[in-house]
Specification:
The structure holds two protein chains of two kinds. Chain A is built from three helices and four strands. Chain A is an alpha+beta fold. Chain A has a domain of 83 residues: Glutaredoxin (3-Layer(aba) Sandwich). Chain B is rod-shaped and about 205 Å long. Strand 4 of chain A pairs parallel with strand 6 of chain B.
Chain lengths: 119, 575
């Protein structure tokens, strides 16, 4: 939780052995098939991660049409839903992730009263 | 021809229905909920929505072999299982047998952020997967409000819920969607606008510190349905709606008649009570209602059948003691386990609980005969329509099980009051016990007010309680009306005296006639003797008169001879 800052060196996502280094953001994006909303969401989160979390994020995209049982496991109601598993606390973002400001703020990637994007 | 075609058209257009299996509900709706369509069940908190929905699924799974899906937005699976296990639903088992699929959809508003346009595809897929997993025909969503509480953007939600109803329809499942009651509208979020097929409203009102549950079918497109508010109960085995009338129920109607315990009464009834019938015995205080009930209980047990006796007024011991005094030994049947008393004060429970209690005991004991003594006491705890609806429900239940029921009812006066009239329409046989009070003496009279399906006597019988039980006697009917008791005896004595008097009168007249004849005859003989006397003297007088003439003639001849007078010669012929 304390490691929200950007002091860690940027590395590509590590998927081995499920070991996640401190400071890595772990996301799951649940979409329902290839819909405009799904595509927008995928695009938006990818852009955001590349921009702000390059090298220290993991993003998994799950199509609930093909894995319907996952809706229960991950408690999915709305689509698209982005779940931030790590760092804690767990957060859910519903929608096509167009509101970048809001997401960044909720991910603690921008200070509370700053409205400008980080470089 | 046009007519037949029209009918055919109607029949093909007839909505197919999914029976809920909820007691009474399918009757109100003529068969259940619209098949393959969503139904909205709305009501305030605690009105029984979840239970209604759950029973619809459980009955569907058990009785109609239609697996179901329960999507809960409020209670976890564990909570649900616990909550309904008290109603005898064992969800665990149904889940294990793939008859039921439960999914708790928790939406925590605290960890959800809206980031743009979204839909409820996640929920749709989740529901769809659950349906496919068990091959569900029935789906419950309980309750939709939770979506509004948990998710942002009501505008999107409204559109999505509208889509959800369409989705459920496209899946061909019969769905029950529950929703909270709104202020001034059926549901808080106006879901009723989205559901065009069927809307059911549940209500839980408190009336004089007693909760009364009611159910109403607000809307049912394409189907006839009862529009009343129907009281319903949540009992040990689920919901039961009380259909207000007992009409239209498909009872067995056994033709077997069973004895009432009073042979003369059986004769009046043309053989006894019908098995499975309901009998009302009403009368003022002390007219012998309990005695009739005890005889009926006695003869039932003697036959080896069980009898359940609900006593709302007297204690079990009191009844047994009193009945012993008229020669009915109920204790023996209790010892043999054929008779069971259930003593309870009417005020001990609310009306609904009485029904629940009776229902439960009847199911446990499985009696052939049930006595309720008296039903009038239930009036003290409910208003007449409530009592009637409870009784209707009870009678229906007993009829379906072929149980013969005898209800004693206390009348306040000679007048048959409204309650008795209301209740009597539910009864097959109505026996009235009456006080007949004349000349400072009170006697009991019995007559049959009605008896469906039997040729019954229309005569009043005098009703005697003797040390060897009830006796029914013919009453004296004459010019002065019905007479009973000492009056009847007096009347009989009077008649006898009158007969004797008449006989004596005849004898007296005959004697008088003889006497008169004698007197007349005496008169005649007197007259005759008088006449005879007169005749005698007259004859003597005649004789005297004759002899005097003779003497005179002799005298004249003597004088002539003395005067030498010529012999009177015949006169000579002169020329």
């Amino acid at each position: 939780m304390e490691d929200n800052s950007t002091d860690n060196a940027a590395k590509g996502p590590e998927r081995a052995a499920g070991e996640i280094r401190a400071g890595t953001y772990v996301f799951q994006l649940y979409v329902s098939g290839i819909t405009p909303k799904s595509l927008q969401a995928i695009e938006n989160i990818k852009a955001l991660c590349e921009e702000h979390l390059r090298g220290r994020y993991e993003l998994q995209i799950i199509d609930v049409y093909r894995n319907p049982e996952q809706t229960r496991d991950a408690r999915i109601v709305a689509a698209p839903t982005l779940i931030k598993q790590l760092p804690a606390p767990l957060r859910r973002f519903v929608g096509n992730l167009a509101d970048k400001e809001h997401i960044l703020f909720k991910l603690d990637l921008i200070p509370h009263d700053s409205s400008s994007e980080l470089p | 021809m046009n007519d037949t075609e029209g009918n055919k058209h109607d029949a093909s257009n007839q909505l197919s229905k999914s029976p809920t299996g909820i007691l009474g509900f399918d009757e109100i709706t003529n068969g259940g909920l619209p098949q393959g369509r969503p139904t909205l069940v709305c009501g305030s908190a605690g009105s029984g929505k979840t239970l209604f929905a759950m029973e619809f699924l459980v009955r569907g799974a058990i009785e109609y072999n239609e697996p179901g899906v329960f999507i809960s937005f409020e209670e976890t699976e564990e909570e649900l299982k616990q909550n309904v296990s008290s109603l005898g639903f064992h969800l665990e088992d149904l889940v294990a047998r793939q008859k039921l699929f439960m999914d708790y959809v928790s939406i925590e508003p605290s960890d959800i952020e809206e980031t743009g346009e979204f839909d409820l595809d996640g929920l749709f897929i989740r529901i769809g997967d659950a349906i496919d997993t068990v091959g569900a025909k029935r789906v419950v969503l309980d309750t939709l409000e939770a979506l509004f509480a948990g998710l942002p953007n009501p505008t999107i939600l409204r559109a999505e819920i509208r889509r959800l109803f369409r989705y459920l329809k496209s899946k061909g499942v019969t769905a029950v969607v529950t929703a909270e009651q709104g202020k001034g509208s059926l549901t808080h979020h106006g879901f009723e606008e989205y559901v065009s097929d069927c809307v059911v409203q549940l209500d839980n009102r408190v009336h004089e510190q007693t909760a009364i549950r009611r159910l109403r079918v607000v809307k049912y497109r394409g189907s006839r349905h009862g529009t009343n508010e129907y009281p319903f109960l949540i009992e040990q085995d689920g919901i039961s709606v009380l259909p207000i009338t007992s009409m239209g129920l498909d009872y067995e109607a056994p033709s077997e008649q069973i004895p009432s315990g009073v042979p003369r009464l059986d004769a009046m009834l043309g053989g006894g009570f019908y098995r499975g019938g309901s009998v009302l015995v009403s009368g003022t205080a002390g007219t012998g209602k309990t005695s009739i009930a005890a005889h009926f209980a006695d003869v039932t047990c003697r036959r080896g059948e069980r009898c359940l006796y609900f006593a709302f007024e007297e204690s079990r011991k009191q009844i047994m003691r009193n009945m012993r005094s008229i020669g009915v030994d109920l204790a023996q049947w209790e010892q043999k386990g054929l008779l069971r008393f259930h003593n309870v004060r009417p005020s001990a429970y609310v009306l609904e609980m009485h029904l629940v209690m009776m229902h439960k005991l009847i199911k446990e004991f499985r009696p052939g005969v049930v006595v309720i003594d008296p039903i009038s006491n239930l009036l003290t705890i409910g208003n007449p329509p409530e009592v009637k609806s409870v009784l209707t429900r009870l009678i229906d239940f007993m009829k379906m099980d072929g149980i013969t029921a005898l209800f004693a009812s206390l009348l306040a006066g000679d007048r048959i009051d409204d309650t008795a009239i209301g209740v009597s329409s539910l009864m097959d046989t109505w026996i009235m016990l009456r006080d007949i009070e004349t000349n400072g003496e009170r006697n009991r009279g019995l007559y049959i007010l009605k008896s469906r399906g039997t040729v019954h006597s229309n005569q009043v019988r005098e009703f005697l309680l003797t040390s060897s039980g009830i006796e029914l006697l013919d009453v004296y009917t004459g010019a002065d009306g019905v007479m009973t008791g000492a009056l009847r005896a007096a009347q009989e004595a009077k008649e006898m005296a009158q007969a004797l008097e008449r006989e004596q009168e005849v004898q007296r007249m005959q004697r008088e006639l003889a006497r008169e004849r004698k007197a007349l005859e005496a008169k005649i003989s007197l007259l005759r003797s008088e006449f005879e006397g007169r005749e005698d003297s007259l004859k003597r007088a005649i004789a005297q008169a004759e002899s005097r003439e003779d003497a005179l003639a002799k005298g004249r001849m003597e004088i002539a001879r003395l005067r030498k007078a010529d012999e009177p010669t015949p006169p000579t012929q002169e020329l």
